[in-house]
Amino acid sequence: MDRDGTINNLADSKKKVTRLRVFSGVARAIKKLNELGFLVVVITNQGGIGKEVWKKKEVDQVHALLVSDMKKQGAVIDAVYYCPHHPKATLEKYRLECECRKPNIGLILKAIKRFKINPKESFLVGDMTRDILAGKRAGMKTILVKTGQGGKEVRYRVKVNPDFVARDINAAAKIIKQITSMKA
What we know:
The mean pLDDT is 91. The protein has one domain: Rossmann fold (3-Layer(aba) Sandwich), CATH 3.40.50. The chain is an alpha/beta fold. The chain has five helices and five strands; from the N terminus they run H-E-H-E-H-E-H-E-E-H. The strands form two sheets. It has a three-stranded parallel beta sheet, with helices on both faces. Strands 1-2 form a two-stranded parallel ribbon. It starts with 25 loop residues before the first helix and ends with a helix.
């Protein structure tokens, strides 16, 4: 799943923060996915590192707090992968078009390999067209959540439609539960 706009308020990601404000119901949704036997892997673009909005260390701290906070609520985030690159980064070492920045699927492939994930049995949940495009490219089912951007930004010339649309991450977890229970 995506982070900014899906798990937490998109505005928080534009500030230097030590703790993101997580949307209501996120821990409950992640816990539901854990109970269904799904791994929960966060895949997020963090180009602000390359743009010097925040330091890599700060992003790592935010992710550690997110994982810890979810764990305290009985929800497990199995891994967090992020891309620090941006084609317009101010720091030269991060200024590039890479395979890990969504809508590319480098980080998704890394998670698939590490955890031996079957993409056909997996879902990508996100609030932006790039999330949905990445999920489609990786062969996953996709769920667009109406939080954050809610799919309103259109940066890619390719028209991409999600497999499902949900009000928020909690509603997305309910969709996943319904789909998986139909297969059982």
